[in-house]
Amino acid sequence: MSKPVIICIDDEITILDSLKIQLKKALGSDYLIETALGGEDALELIDELLEDGYEIALAISDYIMPDIKGDELLKQIHELSPKTLKIMLTGQADLEAVANAINYAKLYRYIAKPWQSEDLSLTVSEALYSYFQDKKLAAQNLELHHMNQALEQANREQAKLIAQLQENENRLQQFLEGVPVGMVVFEATGKLYYLNSRAEQLLNKGLVSDATPEQFPEIYRFYQVGKDRLYPWQDIPGIRALGGESTRVDNIEIRQADRCIPLEVWGTPIYNAEGEIIYAIAAFQDITERKQAEAERAQFTQELLQLNQANERFVPNQFLQLLDKQSIVEVKVGESVEQEMSILFSDIRAFTTLSEQMSLEDNFQFINGFLSRMEPAILENSGFIDKYIGDAIMALFGNSPDDALKAGIAMLQRLEIYNRERERLERPTLKIGVGINTGTLMLGTVGGQSRMDSTVISDAVNLSSRLEGLTKIYGASLLISHCTLAKLNKPMDFSLRLIDRVQVKGKSQKVSVFEVFDADPPPLRAYKLETKSIFESALLQYYCGALDNAIALLQDCLQINPEDTVATIYLKRCQQLRAEGVTVP
């Protein structure tokens, strides 16, 4: 069976890519996510999908598009696929457009642009849930309709038999006895008129003709499924049939001393020629095997979910998605994909010194305690951990470098909280360095037939590791490359400054390195922002060889912010170069 389809429609490819990535993250691989650049493209795509027998569960469309406006497009989609739910992105849509979509296109909801990721994921999940609930209800209604048709046909036949009951009662009894399900006939007064042999077998009791409807649950031990309460007599399908309802329920069970029998029960009224209800028939069957099958299926589904969750702890789901794999079973050695991503490296400073003071067991407990606090900062910012290297973390971010920076800042903030806990236990304060670079890498699998591992290979990975190493030299917590800075969607959201230009091993060009200091203590962060222009001017003078000017500016910077370790390093470097009469390398 083909997967249900979600269609995303926008005239901007970046928005489509963002929608597709976010939907894949929220929904996994259960849906086929298609994109269309505009209304005409979308209508052609829908025609093709419907012709190929695909089920289109949801359409998400922008409003402003050059060929067809969103409300008109959704109206045409509704004409092609009425059951498809629609969501409109309404960055510039007016009230009339939204009303048109609601009135003529079965609009499920509209979302203002730019959207919130959580709002979009929640809205899409709710829409899909509503779609499949509607589908399930339609199927149930169809099944009930068919059953009602069958019962109505039986009613017509039964009505003829009952009308001739005096001379043809034997034929009726033979008919009911021949039915392979339990059959109960109620009089119009609610009294029991007849039970066939299968009904007596299931109920473990014969006809109690003088019983009132209120007494039925207690006499025949009718209970609500999963509850220690008798089934409400007025909800029994046979009694409801006397009120003119045709019903089907599967929430009744018979409890006897040695067994509990779940039932599926149908109730239908029997009319005379004048349209009056003179009898009601209830048919019921033992559904023990079906319930067991449903329970086994639910257990299997739960076990499969647990297995998938366990697999994700070793091979992240994002890794499988990048390789376009639905399961780890499909992954083979040597498979790879080229992708632009942001790489985050972090490492505990002076970890060797710390570990020498602990036993092996304490080392493991310490590392796991630290890593468990850092992991959420990465996952909550759309990243995934590629590998742990002792106390070091390597994480990948495919959406945008902004996520990587937010993750690095969150890690440093979590470390501050963790250090306060350690301080209460009289344990040494921890420091980490974080380096982030952005570039193209190869992501895939390496190894042999009996053992393989996921890995990434690229100069971009090596540079992010080197940036983390530079944090130790400059006493900075978080460093990024100019490649990362250039790719930021919202660079103004971060506090950063240029601190160096470094030579990358094997490369002729130098890389600019920037410090991100959002996680610094508030006073230090404020001073760095205040002295940013002074510091960067000093750096420019340094690179131009104007050491005296650089020294003066650095001294001004340190007068305002004496704790600026980077400014201190450059001041000492300039003074030494001037004393030695050496030019800036």
TrEMBL record:
Residues 168-204 form the PAS domain. Signal peptide: none annotated. PROSITE patterns: GUANYLATE_CYCLASE_2, PAC, PAS, RESPONSE_REGULATORY. Residues 342-468 form the Guanylate cyclase domain. This is Response regulator. One of its GO terms (biological process) is cAMP biosynthetic process. InterPro entries: A/G_cyclase (IPR001054), Adenylyl/Guanylyl_Cyclase_3/4 (IPR050697), CheY-like_superfamily (IPR011006), Nucleotide_cyclase (IPR029787), PAC (IPR001610), PAS (IPR000014), PAS-assoc_C (IPR000700), PAS-like_dom_sf (IPR035965). Residues 137-171 form a coiled coil. The modification 4-aspartylphosphate is found at residue 62.
